[in-house]
Backbone:
């Protein structure tokens, strides 16, 4: 059976929110613990968490999950640098068929969705399987191991979008309408808590 890893990006400083979004509570858990739990349920291991801003605070709240943790000292450079940092750690697992990259502020991501990405790769035979919402392709996104070098070479703000745009012929999509809700502001969080977005 093919083996997959997960990288959870949790390095940002949540500047628009004013507090670490990784530690917001939802359904009795912090967002970072909820994402870790779903990732582990989907793939087992390895699950790599990339921290950066607020790293000591986040490290205290990790609920005892078996995560591999790496700190991105250059988190302020953008998502590309965090993906690259996570790839350096996960690449030590040389038996992986692919990696799923996810963020910590999409509260409706669950193990079933991550498994759907893996299943879709088997069905479609494509190297990249991305979620689609709001007329865009984005996270969570699965990359086969043929993209590991390109992911490790990312830098700056652009993240993996650049690879998606360059590889449309090797891309399949999984609809995930609720992916459009990510927690960037206090208003987003209130909408989540008051059920204005229904899962």
Residues:
């Amino acid at each position: 059976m093919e083996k997959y890893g997960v990288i959870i990006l949790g390095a940002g400083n949540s500047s628009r929110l004013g507090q670490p979004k990784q530690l917001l509570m939802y359904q009795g858990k912090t967002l970072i613990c909820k994402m870790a739990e779903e990732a582990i349920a989907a793939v087992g291991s390895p699950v790599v968490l990339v921290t950066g801003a607020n790293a000591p605070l986040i490290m205290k709240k990790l609920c005892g999950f078996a995560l591999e943790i790496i700190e991105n000292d250059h988190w302020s450079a953008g998502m590309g640098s965090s993906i690259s940092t996570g790839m350096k750690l996960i690449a030590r697992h040389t038996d992986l068929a692919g990696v799923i990259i996810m963020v910590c502020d999409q509260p409706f991501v669950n193990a079933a969705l991550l498994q759907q990405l893996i299943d879709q790769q088997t069905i479609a035979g494509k190297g990249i399987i991305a979620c689609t919402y709001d007329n865009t392709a984005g996270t969570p996104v699965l990359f086969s191991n043929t993209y590991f070098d390109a992911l490790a070479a990312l830098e700056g703000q652009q993240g993996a979008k650049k690879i998606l745009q360059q590889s449309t012929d090797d891309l399949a999509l999984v609809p995930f309408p609720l992916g459009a809700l990510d927690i960037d502001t206090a208003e987003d969080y209130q909408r989540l808590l008051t059920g204005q977005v229904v899962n």
Residues 111-124 form the longest helix (14 residues). The mean pLDDT is 89. Helices lie at 31-43, 55-59, 79-90, 111-124, 148-152, 161-166, 186-193.
